[in-house]
Amino acid sequence: MEIVPNSNNSSTDRTNKNLTRRDFVKKAGASAVVFAIEPMLSGEEAETIKMNEATAEEIRKCKKIIENEQYGEILKNPCLVSALYYSKHAIEKMAPPHKNDPEQIIWSIYPLVTKKFRENYINTLEKITLDNNSEQKNLTTQSLPLDTITFDKNLKRNHLDAIDLFTEEGSPIYSMSGGIVVLAENGWKRGDAESTSSEHGGNTVIIFNPNDNSFYRYAHMQETGVSTEAVLISGEKIGKVGHTGLNASKPGHGGHLHLEINKYDKKDGEMMALDVFALKRKIEALEKTQ
Ligand SMILES: [Zn+2]
Fold first, then answer.
1. Do 81 and 185 belong to one domain?
2. Are 99 and 163 within one domain?
3. What separation in Å is there between the alpha carbon of 248 and the centre of ligand 1?
4. C-alpha torsion 275→280→285→288, nearest 10
């Protein structure tokens, strides 16, 4: 296994490393190419799907990282980070026809991720967290993501595996857990599928907590205030509440934090999403400790 942690990135340097997909994809004009993706989801035959050259190139790049086991390269590729984050159930919901380029990329590279690759990725994250935690911060505590918590009255209306927490636009968002930032994107723009790796999530942060093997995903931010590979403790500010993302940016949606927690199941090597009620219970339990 190749591990190439970026050890010269101190936890205080969080200003210049916010990633956008634009950093990695050179626009290739409107030229559509036919690109054979294989293997697709288990048991299926190789499919031929139309996509633009930039998307095809991004898939090839991620495929190479997986095949060559370049674990040190993963965090530079937001779509690959996302493919390693989502549960199988969430990926199935991204099946064609794809609404945007990032979904097409994530859906295409997910089947290439083996259990071994995911396990080594988790091990690598644990190692980088340790290496980058030179201040020996205590990463075991947990806290609320917002100063004021307001649950949606009809919890299951929007999400099964996520929760929406409504609050004032611009309110600070805090990391619920200690851990390492694996994705931090700014610059989401409506109608620009390349602005971030999630056209729906908008400006998004994902933090991995090695203590509970969980990934915490915060979406629709006005702006994110951390950078990848930064090591945080719970309660540190990671951004502001906003309404970026395809649906959240529509009129009437209101400022809210979209929160997901996906746990890596060591036993079967899969990602398991906490359901909306488990998320609510977790937040209520944290409220009692405040
Ligand atoms: Zn949501």
1. no
2. no
3. 8
4. 170
